Amino acid sequence: RATVAAGLKVAAYGSYYRVGETQDNPEFADVLASAQALGAPTIRVWPGKRGSADADAAYRGQVVDDLQRIASMAAEAGIAVACEFHGGTLTDTNDSALAMYEEANHPNLLAYWQPMVGHPLSYCVEGLTALLPRLANLHLFHWAALDGKRVREPLAAGTDRCAQYLAVAGQAQGDRWALLEFVRDDDPEQLVADAATLCALLAE
User: Fold this and answer.
1) In what order do the strands lie in the sheet with 13-18?
2) pLDDT tier at 50 (50, 70, 90 boundaries)?
3) From the CA atom positions of the chain, what is the Rg in Å?
4) Pairing state of beta strands 142-146 and 149-153?
5) The CATH number fitting domain 2-113, selected from 3.30.530.20, 3.20.20.150, 3.40.1130.10, 3.40.50.10330
6) pLDDT tens per residue, range 55-94
7) Contacts of 154 by beta carbon, 8 Å cutoff, 6+ apart
8) Which residue(s) pair with 82 in the sheet?
């Protein structure tokens, strides 16, 4: 209610439900209830706790089975389920992410997307383009890979890349959210600057 009163909208419930896991994981029914209370149209989940290189067929099947289960549960409440696009999960590469979605093959299962740090622009665009039919929301930020470390930079330093990502995402049907993440030094002033950069990009 406070969100709506402030003139804001709920983009999604960013849960930390780990699909296919049983230990230290909430019941999805509780996650769903929280999303309903928030009026969230989408629940973000994490597809497992293993990267694709460490996931055998049995583990992938375990994640896919749970994806189908929770996507069906959420569909009954009119809420979509969308997987984080992230390292250490089954969406840590373009190919693994696409294979997972094809295996799950559920109409209520959508995809988050974010830039892969250290990968060329062409690889990032390729992955985003492939996910367009099921794209939910995007996480946007700009990191540099320096001496094997990831360094957060102002979004303004990556406007060329972000503009291309937004142009690709704009080809998808329907509406979605571009969400800021990982501002430099966790600085509130940097958040304001990054928000201004993002708004300018969206207005182009």
Assistant:
1) 13-18, 42-46, 80-83, 109-113, 135-140, 178-180
2) very high
3) 17
4) antiparallel
5) 3.20.20.150
6) 999 999 999 999 999 999 999 999 999 999 999 999 999 9
7) 142, 184, 190, 193, 194, 197
8) 44, 110
